[in-house]
Fold this sequence. Notes:
The protein is α/β, with parallel strands linked by helices. The protein contains ten helices and ten strands.
Amino acid sequence: MALLEIRSIIRMFGGLCALNGVDFSVEEGEIHGLIGPNGAGKTTLLNILSGMAPPSSGQVQFAGRDIHALPAYQVASLGVARTFQNIRLFPAMTCLENVIAGQHLTASRPLLPRLLQLPSAWRLDHEYEKDARSTLARVGLENRARVRAQSLSYGERRRLEIARALAARPRLLLLDEPVAGMRQGEVTQVAELIRILAGEGMTILLIEHNMSFVMTLCSRITVLNFGQVIATGTPDTVSRHPHVIEAYLGVDKSS
Ligand SMILES: Nc1ncnc2c1ncn2[C@@H]1O[C@H](COP(=O)(O)OP(=O)(O)OP(=O)(O)O)[C@@H](O)[C@H]1O
Ligand SMILES: [Mg+2]
């Protein structure tokens, strides 16, 4: 069975059907792309997968367990982490603090030793800080640890979001436009990081409009258009699919 099974997902917003019977699966360890024109329903689907919004109907199974009715914090504690299309960091906190905040799902911080100021609490903090620093290094922000998130460039903020998601040590990482607004050098760095993460066994589902990034990185791609899956397959198959070409380029049906 696939790590993530998405079955017959429908999501209505009033009279608007943002997702209209979406079915596809993501295998463990793969880098799976989710593409489609603006408004196709990609972010809406990621919101459902991460427990931030329930589907109107349909099921999502993660590691054999139904998660579509679970709240976000429970989905996250099962090993699903995400980044946001509209970056959501703590702007006044440092990079290090943002990453430490992302550790909370896996890190245990017992209150009593902290209240009593025992050395064990200090040692634990030291361990978590070390871990957060190495996560920052993975996204190339090791020299920005003490810099506030609000002072970072746009590309750096996107990388910090990835670091914060990684801090939870997820089994499935959901990325919503991870390289939007980045310089080419940064795009290459993020692509390399994603490859390494997948090599370590992490499963990645990513939304991106940067086609060369998606096509070179993903082993499989699902294409959404108007809330429906119009193609799933290898980059090669999907890029030649007539419905995909039509969705992206538009076809004059009168001709
Ligand atoms: N909270 C909401 N309330 C009403 N309509 C919404 C809401 N969220 C999304 N929509 C609508 O659902 C449709 C899908 O939006 P969604 O943000 O999922 O698209 P997307 O594929 O992520 O697009 P983009 O590539 O521009 O990010 C759009 O028509 C959008 O206007
Ligand atoms: Mg979106």
